[in-house]
Design brief:
This protein has 289 residues and is mainly β. Helix content is 0%, strand content 39%. It is built from no helices and 19 strands. The chain has strands spanning 24-32, 35-44, 50-54, 59-62, 74-79, 85-90, 93-94, 107-108, 121-124, 132-140, 145-157, 160-163, 170-173, 186-190, 196-200, 218-220, 229-232, 240-247, 253-263.
Length: 289
């Protein structure tokens, strides 16, 4: 805050490099000898641009363009809202060791000598785990001074499959390939806790890497790029997003897409002290004796 002697009543505050975290109500109080002479509140709202994309796209771009002429040794740092380093770019290095492992081999900044002001970040194979507000900070390497700070919010939309009543025989998690996959491609289905749901092709019906809670409950028929997974006897324990990843023979990611599953459970409410309560269960199948 700099007092303007020509305008002695101006106590305006300048806040440098505002971000979404600075959204707040600020109070200015003027007092003398403990007595409040004036109090005023100002509400600050920092708008953050939002990028939305459907699960399954090959990549998404988080735009950043600056009108500032950057010095030759400027440092560009992208972080997510949890403080994890997504990408760092310097004139003499790219993809440093401090990059978080979740983003390894998934980020790019293509600095065009003809368009040095474009420092947009490309994030490959985004999933709902990438939903965050990303902060790009540009530093002057010599003085470690902040030159630019800007935010972009990313929202990855995941299709939802709902099972209206627990007890159905099976549910399908639909995934279709958006490209022609090689015959030797490997397909992996994983749940939100990184447990292996299904592997295709597998040497046996019960691959060792498949988590035991899913053994005997999954099927997948690869026909014309249809990677839909059938999950038998779903319960609310199976709720959550599932990720289907297709790998090449060399282990490179060819496609990654998610499906969110929600299983509705019948609810019974009763007042405490009742003599009994009935938990209903009826089956549509003819059960053996």
């Amino acid at each position: 805050m700099k007092r303007n002697l020509l305008e002695p009543a101006d106590f305006s505050l300048t806040l440098k490099h505002p971000t979404e975290r600075d959204t707040n109500t600020y109070t200015c109080t003027i007092s003398r000898e403990g007595k409040i002479l004036m109090k005023k509140r100002v509400e600050l709202k920092v708008r953050v641009p939002r990028v939305e994309v459907d699960s399954g796209v090959e990549s998404v771009q988080l735009p950043l363009k600056t009108t500032l002429h950057l010095p030759e040794k400027a440092k560009v740092e992208w972080k997510n809202s949890s403080g994890r380093i997504v990408h760092v770019y310097e004139s003499d290095s790219d993809q440093p060791e401090e990059q978080n492992h979740c983003y390894k081999d998934r980020t790019e900044i293509n600095v065009d000598p003809l368009k040095p002001e474009d420092l947009s970040l490309t994030l490959k194979y985004p999933t709902d785990r990438d939903n965050s507000t990303y902060i790009c900070t540009i530093y002057s390497r010599d003085k470690n001074k902040i030159l630019v700070k800007k935010q972009v919010e990313l929202k990855v939309r995941v299709p939802l499959v709902e099972v209206e009543d627990s007890g159905v025989e099976s549910v399908k998690l639909p995934i279709k390939a958006t490209l022609n996959l090689p015959k030797d491609a490997k397909v992996e289905w994983m749940d939100s806790s990184y447990r292996m749901l299904h592997v295709y092709p597998s040497s046996s019906d019960q691959p060792e890497e498949q988590d035991r809670r899913y053994r005997g409950r999954t099927e997948m028929n690869d026909e014309n790029g249809d990677l839909t997974l059938t999950l038998k006897h779903p319960t609310d324990w199976d709720r959550g997003p599932y990720t289907c990843t297709v790998y090449s023979r060399e282990g490179n990611i060819l496609m990654r897409k998610q499906v969110d599953l929600k299983v509705m459970v019948c609810q019974v409410e009763v007042e405490e002290g009742a003599e009994s309560v009935q938990l209903p269960f009826k089956t549509t199948e003819n059960l053996p004796e």
